[in-house]
Amino acid sequence: MARTIARSLARSLTGLLAALLLLTVQRAVAADAPPVNINTASAAELATLSGIGPAKAQAIVEHREKNGQFKTVDDLKLVQGIGDKMLEKLRPQVTVDGARSAAAPKNPAPAQH
Question: What is the dotted CATH code of the domain comprising 34-101?
């Protein structure tokens, strides 16, 4: 019986460590990703944000389609299901400026006169 308990405990700890490792890797990848433009991103792109699932992503898109573009990131609070805590979690992951989430070109073409 002691062996069964020890095996069960070992499996549980192994699973917990694997889950923690996966979470750490996901957070590191998310921290390195450029912000997602909430005015141009698809529901699928929005669903990749931490704390946003498919339903909330669709609600963001529907709000944008019905009410026009978001003027500031704070306007996300107008979407049902997004409150102050969620907004603060999303703030570093999103933007209303620039391209969807692509980085700026490294060598822009020179201006022509």
Answer: 1.10.150.280
Beta bridge partners of residue 94, listed in sequence order: 36
pLDDT of residue 11: 81
Kindly list the distances between the CA atom of residue 7 and the CA atoms of 16, 17, 18, 72, in Å, as whole numbers in the listed order.
14, 15, 16, 52
Structural domain boundaries of the chain?
Answer: 1-32, 34-101
Long-range pairs for 21-30: beta carbons < 8 A, 24 or more residues apart: 26/50, 30/93
Which residues of the chain fall below pLDDT 50?
Answer: 25, 28-29, 100-111
Say what the pTM is: 0.61
- Torsion angles phi and psi, residue 63, rounded to 5: -60, -45
